[in-house]
Structures are given as structure tokens and as C-alpha cells.
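Hi team,

As requested, here is the filled-out complex form for the NAP run. I kept the field names the same as last time so the parser does not choke. Let me know if anything looks off before we queue the next batch.

— J.
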Amino acid sequence: MSKEGAAATRLAVTGATGFVGGAVRRAAEDAGWSVLGLGRRAGADRRWDITDGPLTDPPDVDAVVHCAGSASDTADRRAQWAANVEGTANVLASFPGARFVHVSTASVYDPLRPTALADEDRAPVARYPDAYGASKAAAERLVRARRPDAVVLRPHAVYGPGDTTLLPRVLAAVRGGTLVAVGDGTQRISLTSVDNLAQACLLAARGGATGVFNITDDAPVPLADALAAVLAARGVAARVRFVPLAVAFPLACAAELAHRWRGAGGAPRLTRYAARHLARERTLDITRARTELGYRPSPTSFAGAATW
Ligand SMILES: NC(=O)c1ccc[n+]([C@@H]2O[C@H](COP(=O)([O-])OP(=O)(O)OC[C@H]3O[C@@H](n4cnc5c(N)ncnc54)[C@H](OP(=O)(O)O)[C@@H]3O)[C@@H](O)[C@H]2O)c1
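And here is what came back:
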């Protein structure tokens, strides 16, 4: 986004110490905006745990991009609810007069069915087997109820420099020269580069559009191609072996139990959420973002992934 086209905007970014929020912050600064980055870690302009309650002295900003949250599919249910739902309520209460951009997720689509070029009206659904989807759906409902003028963005599988989730987990799952993946590899998946997501956040923060928008790269890709491209870009010589969900799901249950039993940090190699999610088509229709937000995404590419 060029400096020329952007009106000077004072922007607050929650989760600015994280992967998505950090990219939003850099993109806004590159566009000449004045940015206040909020987070708990060092590196935030202002430290704020969003579960502690609303800010008592919030900064005067034109827009807020709310990226803070728990993006883990293995976090404790209570902690996930606190960060994603109660935290969102506190961010809403802190900035009643600013444009509100809420970074949600495609995990609000029905996890038990394929998501085939889904439009925005297909979610949220009534029930979620996982705490992440449930908490993000509840947060969306809260935002839409309290701020009908808000923009809700639903990215899917975000990758790029600083990725804390997707790429590290794919690479960590390679064992003995083999990467075990779920399904048969032909299932298509919509991925989202963090630069594309940052572009959407800034378009939304400028104002003009309201509502819910799917956000992905230009077009979906088969899962086998995406995994091969990631491994090649990182110079990892590994064979991808696909196994059916009926085999992967019990393995994921065992991996989660063993992980919990060992008390290890991070995430196990395979989770039930990931197995269920990856086994089926996960593609989103981004027509609404293109037409109403003016979103112009680049295609999926892992060029430069060697340095991520
Ligand atoms: N990564 C993906 O593939 C993906 C896909 C779809 C949607 N999303 C959504 O994108 C958002 C950001 O995810 P991410 O991938 O950037 O995760 P991340 O790298 O783990 O960053 C999470 C950010 O949220 C902040 N945060 C978490 N709990 C907080 C709390 N209680 N108070 C204040 N700040 C808190 C963290 O701050 P500190 O580190 O300073 O504590 C960090 O800045 C999430 O809402 C997630 O649902 C991500």
C-alpha cells in the first residue's frame, strides 16, 4: 500500500508483538500511518494484558486492528476463552469510537464438513468440537452484536516471515525424511500470506466497508503442492506420505495424550484439530473482499521461506 494513497491514520494494533499483528504494524508504518502497538511482551509500545479489563486511559485513535488472541489449537479451554472472548470484549470497550477491525479465522466454518469455496454466510455454526473455533466464533458474535459497523476478517492458514504456527509445525513434523499428512493430497486449501492479510487489515481500517470478509491468497492450491513447495523452499528433502483421516485421527488422539502426559510445551506433532482440518477441502470465496474492500491478493508463494 503506497504512502500516497493513504490518509494519515492513527492506528492501534493489539497483538502487535505477534506474527499477524507485527506484520500489520509494519505495513501501516510503511504506509505512513501512526501506529501504537499493544501487547504483553517487550517490543510493545504499551503493555496490556487484554484479559485484565478495558484500558482506563485508551489512546485516541481512528482505528483498531484487533489481532491479539490465542491462536493455538492445544491451549487450555479456559485460557482460550479468556484471551479470545473476554479479551475481545475488553478491546471493544476500550475503543468505542474507533473503527474496529477484528481478525477472526476460517476456523469458524464447520470443522466437521469440507469448506468448499464457502461464502461468509456459512459461519458461525452451532457447535465446534474444539475450543479455538468455539472461542473465535463467540468473539465474532460479540463484535457483530456490539459493533455492527465493525469489519471482521477471516483468514485461513496464515504464513510468512515470523510465522509461529504453520511453517514451524510442518517442519517439526518431518521425521526420518518423511512428512506424514492427512487425506490424499488432492484436497484444495486456501492459504493466506501475512502480507495479503496485512493489506486487508489496512483496507478495512481505512473505513468504508463493514461486515465479514474471507481473506486468502489469490486462489486455492492442492495440499500436496503446498507442502512440496514449503519443503523445497526450506531445502528440506522429505517425502510426503498421505494417510486417511481414519488412520490419522486415532494417531492424533494418542499424540495429544502423550504430549499432555509428558507435560511438554508447544504442540504435539499432530492434533485432532489439525487432522480433521487438513483432511478435507478448506477453500474460501473471497469475492466479497475483492468487490467491497478492494482487496487485491497475490498468489500463494513460499519464495523467501528459507529466511523465515
Ligand atoms: N496464524 C494463523 O495461521 C492464523 C490464522 C487465522 C487467524 N489467525 C488469528 O490471528 C490472530 C493473531 O494470531 P498470530 O498467528 O499472530 O498469533 P501469535 O503470533 O501467537 O500472536 C498472538 C498475539 O496476541 C497477543 N496476546 C495473546 N494473548 C494476549 C493477552 N491476554 N493480552 C494481550 N495480548 C495477548 C500476543 O501478545 P504477547 O506475545 O505480547 O503476549 C501476541 O502479540 C489471532 O486472533 C488468530 O486467531 C491466525
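Two things worth flagging: The chain has one domain: 10-303. Residues 15 and 68 are 4 Å apart (CA to CA).

Thanks,
J.
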